[in-house]
Structures are given as structure tokens and as C-alpha cells.
Predict the structure.
Amino acid sequence: MTKEAKIMFGIGGICFVAIVIMAIGVKSNRETLVGDILKKPSVHMTGSISARVTLVEFGDYQCPACASADPIVKQIIDAQKSNPDFNFMFKHFPLSQHKNAEIAAEAAEASGAQGKYWEMSSLLYEKQSEWAESSNSIDLFMAYAQSLGLDTGRFKDEVESSKYSDIIRSDLSDGLSLGVNSTPTFYLNGNQVTSLSSFEDLKSKVDSALAN
């Protein structure tokens, strides 16, 4: 090997090592970003931020896929409700193409302010076909609020004034930082869940995480 070839080989080796180090650094930074975002306490979570296993959902109340996934999620929450090692977090991710998604998130938040967040969340998914394309969704949300025994005057004022927009925007920003572009998107202990076909499917993933 000539002297020039040895020099070029050495330079190539140095460049390769530098690329590997940069790749590791990028991966580390990405993992740190994901961890920081997903470990932030959510306004709406079922357990403790210190739980060993955390399932995070970025969801949109007007999304049909989210409505389909909701019964599965509720089964998981119910199955783990007495387990201090499990925590479920919901984060708002209203998609721009869904005209009533953001006001629905406001309705959920306004209900949460009166202690009925999860109840309204369930109603929004169950009755999605009623309000999704409505030009006057607030009237339907008012009816749901009344059925839950809420102070409907307070509820309406808060929804129409977008009182909880900061919470919704913060969740949306977190999702965008992670690269979320569709709903529902789930993360289990920081790893994106790429498929969710059934309760059994999600339960096996959660059980596996709890076993580790």
C-alpha cells in the first residue's frame, strides 16, 4: 500500500468513526427528547408519573380510528386500575382537517374542570357521528354536559371562550415535536406502538412491559 493510500485509508477510517459518533449522538438526543416529552405529567392521566409502565395516546375526538380504539384503551385502563406500576396519559392532537376536533377537546377540558373529564371523553367518542360534522356542535356538547350533571352555564362559557386552548396547544406541540402526524398514536414506555388490532394485542404489549 502506498503512502498516499495509507493516508486516505486513515482519513476514511476517521470519517467513519465520526459518522458513527454523530449517529449515536443524534439517537441519544432523540431518545432524550422523547423521554422528556412523554414523562411530562399530563393533565389527564390515570396513575402516577413515576409508574414503571406508561401508555401515552395522542388523540383527536373527531377521529374515527380514535373512537374505534377507545374501547380497547378503556379495557386496558380497567384491567390495570389497581396496578401502581401502570399509568395512561391522554394528550390532545386535534387534526386540522377535523373542524370540530378542537372544540371537542375544549368540551372535554371544561368537563374535566368539573370532575367529569373521562365521562365526557367517552361520550364524545360514543356520539362522534352526531357532532363530528355539525355546524352547531356546542348545543350537542351542552346536552352531553347536562346528562353528566355539569353546570352547563359555566361549561358553555369556558368552551366558547377557548379557556383551555393553552393545554390543547401544549399537547399538540408535544406531538409535533415527536413527529406525530396521525391519530391515534400510542407510545408505550417511550416506544411507538405501531399496531393496535385488539385488546389482546395491546394487553400483551403492556404485560410484556410490566414483566421487564
Summary: Residues 15-30 have pLDDT under 50 and may be disordered.
